[in-house]
Specification:
- It is a single chain.
- The protein has 245 residues and is an alpha/beta fold.
- The protein has 2 domains: 77 residues; 149 residues, 3-Layer(aba) Sandwich (Rossmann fold), CATH 3.40.50.
- The protein has 10 helices and 7 strands.
- The protein has a 5-stranded parallel β-sheet with strand order 4-3-5-6-7, with helices on both faces. A two-stranded antiparallel ribbon has the order 1-2.
- 33% of the residues are buried.
Length: 245
């Protein structure tokens, strides 16, 4: 969600809360929505709207969208709601990581996806996760709209791929975290200024561990990742051997 869209949506939610409930009732609602308001005192704010905006300013995008959908808020002629995820993310509470890659290197992306499962992270690999009967581009767009973060696998040819550059642009436009994984090619364009994660001689499991660490440190992703950690127990078995890419 773009910053301007987020501000507009937070304001719409705050106005709706002001119309519906008292301060105490708003607090009960926010608690039910898992939004922390303990450090905000009613007396420090001039109105319920300003109070609600302050509390919601720290909530993650997916929580904001879910609240807007629950309240039936309409923007641009449509009811706001969380975007529909692709088929492999439906019904999961794991962290959603879009793995951008070129088609000729899909096995690298699949290995990384498998390793990330042990950290409560559900990867989306277009060339594996899209069922033949599903519209290819629509499923990719669902993944881009509903992802929590992206990892770009920079194998040779990545920077010249029209599709991967579109995916990077989509992620940057939404303001989600993008991790560049250098696998034979340096990142270019807008993400070239950020330090890339080098492969070196590390296995997929070691790379997945560092990705997990980077996501845990970023304020945009750490809360959602932490909430996904209980699911780690479902895939906590260690691999029989340290399989490289």
């Amino acid at each position: 969600m773009r910053p301007s869209e987020r501000l507009k949506l937070v304001e719409a939610i705050a106005i709706e809360l002001q119309k519906r409930w008292t301060f105490v009732e708003i607090d009960h609602y926010l608690s039910a929505c898992r939004v922390d308001h303990g450090s905000y005192l009613h007396g420090n704010f001039g109105s319920k709207r300003v109070y609600s905006q302050a509390v919601l300013s720290k909530a993650p995008d997916d929580r904001i969208q879910a609240i807007a959908a629950d309240l039936g808020i309409v923007q641009d002629g449509a009811t706001v709601g969380a975007p529909e995820p692709p088929a492999n993310w439906q019904g999961t509470n794991r962290f959603r990581l879009f793995i951008s890659h070129i088609s000729t290197q899909k096995l690298v992306a699949i290995r990384l996806k498998e390793a990330l499962m042990h950290h409560g992270i559900a990867g989306f690999v277009a060339h594996e996760d899209i069922h033949p009967t599903l519209a290819w581009q629509e499923e990719i767009e669902r993944g881009l709209r509903s992802m929590d973060a992206m990892v770009a696998v920079h194998t040779k040819g990545f920077s010249s791929s029209y599709w991967t550059q579109q995916e990077i642009g989509f992620a940057l436009g939404r303001g989600v975290k993008v991790i560049s994984f250098k696998f034979g090619e340096d990142p270019t364009g807008f993400i070239g200024k950020h330090q890339a994660l080098p492969r070196l001689r590390r296995s997929a499991e070691e790379i997945a561990e560092e990705i997990d660490s980077l996501l845990a440190k970023d304020p945009r992703t750490r809360e959602k990742l932490s909430a996904a950690k209980p699911w780690k127990s479902l895939a906590s078995l260690e691999p029989e051997e340290d399989v490289p890419f």
